[in-house]
């Protein structure tokens, strides 16, 4: 018996085996969920298709670039026709140009700022909008992935910190506007994990080292731990929790200087 028995969750953001979304996928499967996946484009689709070969059952998959609302609409339309209703959505998607993830924040360009916001923050809104009808009457749950750089300055994180601040605000506003439909929306603020996206942040290795030295648990969080906490928020065990940011970071965010 798992806490996700009988539930279907759409997961956005699996790129490779290091992806946080892959940790969430495995944690959900362990708890009995059925998962369906997006992939950003055909090239990434091939990598994801290889990756899912290690799962006991091949999940339903379809392409979806989250910056194109027509693709989001098509994704959920196809999902509804081919799979049926769903119970949850995971937004584990972010992008910023490499040149915006380092150097002085006051050199941020409008294009770089807008792109980071579009992919990493705004996209949660159309995703929630088009997923909501598939969760009607099912106490749906949406989870997105944030980072501590949303609220404190983390050197190098720059535009992504501002995008995460917007993402956490979007979480609260969506929780308020979808609450009447009994859809919950929460963010998981994960500690640093070595993934392809994270390696684009200048000085990321130093952040990992610092957390290991200073966090209350004296280590970095794992992909599996973020997967388990996300599964909790997607499950009925969290039925009274919405609009929150849950820190899954070995405690680093509680520290002052
Ligand atoms: P990752 O590179 O494995 O995942 C990022 C995903 O975003 C990829 O699957 C990529 O295909 C997808 N993506 C980017 N642009 C897209 C687009 N236009 N349309 C559709 N998909 C798109 O890296 P990750 O670290 O697993 O990142 C997942 C989430 O976790 C992100 O929101 C990230 O900011 C967040 N996060 C990461 C860390 C960390 O240290 N790794 C910490 C806290 C939060």
Structure description:
The chain is an alpha/beta fold. It has one domain (8-247): NAD(P)-binding Rossmann-like Domain (Rossmann fold, 3-Layer(aba) Sandwich). 39% of the residues lie in helices and 14% in strands. It is built from eight helices and seven strands. The chain has a seven-stranded parallel β-sheet with strand order 3-2-1-4-5-6-7, sandwiched between helices. α6 (158-178) links the parallel β5 and β6 (184-190). The longest helix has 21 residues, at 158-178. The protein is globular and about 50 Å long. The termini are far apart. The model has no long low-confidence stretch (mean pLDDT 97). The structure holds nicotinamide-adenine-dinucleotide.
Defining key terms:
binds nicotinamide-adenine-dinucleotide, 7 strands, alpha/beta, 257 residues, Rossmann fold, seven-stranded parallel beta sheet
Describe this structure in a few short sentences.
By secondary structure, the protein is an alpha/beta fold.
Topology summary:
Blueprint: E1 8-12, H1 20-30, E2 34-39, H2 42-51, E3 60-63, H3 69-82, E4 88-91, H4 110-122, H5 124-131, E5 141-146, H6 158-178, E6 184-190, H7 204-214, H8 223-234, E7 245-248
Parallel strand pairs: 1-2, 1-4, 2-3, 4-5, 5-6, 6-7
The structure holds nicotinamide-adenine-dinucleotide.
